DNA sequence: CGATGTCTTGACCCCCATCAATCAGAGTGG
DNA sequence: CCACTCTGATTGATGGGGGTCAAGACATCG
């Protein structure tokens, strides 16, 4: 059931020339677990690379795209809308994230995906992903890791949506995105306190389930308390400790499971 | 980080005698995709069967249980709590559900699990599950299905928590559990409008993020509108259409993905 | 330079949380 | 059989957190 609000059109320009596996964020990408020597295989299975302009929709809830996507660069939002038009952002897609895999009983994708900034993506035909999963156990592992991390984040947002105050919700979201931003290029930005932050206050509102007016008040209040500062598309965390305390934020939810990793390693070998 | 509120102790009595694979809900269980002839293998890998008394906790957020569990009978709640003690139910575990697999970066389970009614569970050591996943592709498929369905449900609750009114949230939860209850024994109860419903109004409140007082008012209101009726541990849906409309509920989120199924089938063979 | 999108602030008020009291049913023990 | 207890359901009164409406400030961009 596609939603009625589809004012923004899909604009994606295929650029099959570029090598889609030159991913700057291999560390967190779907195929990061694959030894370099096996990458030939994945390369033969890559499809087109896409560039999604800012504000374009990659797909809408209810579509049945034949591909899944890995984000190389840019930020995306994954959201659902009610008939009334009210939007809820389910999670944010940052480089390395894998989207479009999750379907419902009809094979529909269950959320819409919109590029917040210009974003580059690598598209993979679903059957080829399945083939990969059959041949390379690491893909299965990595897929589980990504899905579980997203599930963790989703559950924590649910906890917040139901049981936190406005300030706590906003603080949590800021910290989540702050950490995820930094984790992308650990060697350069591992301890920088300022990150790029392309969200509007409207986006924040739709992510935490508040009105944009109230988000504004909360943000101004956090600034007044000298916990953060934010000016055009940049976010600075000033008092990380206090903010973490307010949000009850645990960075552990953003990492994958060494337990699973270790246990899996003993069973899953390399590709046959 | 274990929460401070641990007033309820863990009480599980192992009953290794019983065959844990006599699951009455094979249709939705983890190992449902495995052909009967291969069940010998899974049986050799089963561990103890547990009985969790009503109100006992199977594990707490922050624990590192060495096993994962499949629910055979009974209802469980999976929840997180804030330091203030406020509880948010993330999802409900019904027979066939698989719990304890999802971990964070430290290998901790990310939610607490409590039996709402007396529940029987089959415990599987994690390494053996991994072994199974390596040998039987259907286990991997089924695991993805279960995880994705849970993710769907979680996301829809997030949508509701952020953007729905109290009445819409409650209606959604009732329908979700109504359908899931009926799906368990399709041949007998496929079209019954009354199901067992062991939740207290307190539980509903913690699931949808409202106060129990307000949940009570909303329920009484739904009854007054002649949409449902509920008396001690039983729920009857009177006007399914109207209720579905209010909740914007889509039963499709509860089923697994035929798309994934079909695509997977062409690649994954039977066990080697 | 309008035009559009985003941020900011104020005024008003409603949905729902909180507090408090009562009631019904299920055990439980004598 | 009947007090006693405990959990859960119910209803009323009150107030606050945050939604909604409106208007203005500010920035960016064709």
Average of pLDDT of chain A: 79
What is the distance, rounded to the nearest whole angstrom, between the alpha carbons of the first and last residues of chain A?
A: 41 Å
| Silhouette of chain A | globular
Q: Which ranges of chain A are low-confidence, i.e. pLDDT below 50, for 5 or more consecutive residues? A: 1-28, 33-45, 257-272
* Multimeric state: homodimer
Report Rg of chain A. Answer: 19 Å
Run of helices and strands of chain A: EHEEEEEEEEHHHHEHHEEHH
Show the largest interface: A-B, 63 and 63 residues
Computed structural class of chain A: alpha+beta
Helix content of chain A: 25-40%
Strand content of chain A: 15-25%
**In what order do the strands lie side by side in the largest sheet of chain A?**
1-2-9-4-7
Sketch the major β-sheet of chain A. Answer: 5 strands, antiparallel
| Tally of strands of chain A | 12
- Number of helical stretches of at least 4 residues of chain A: 9
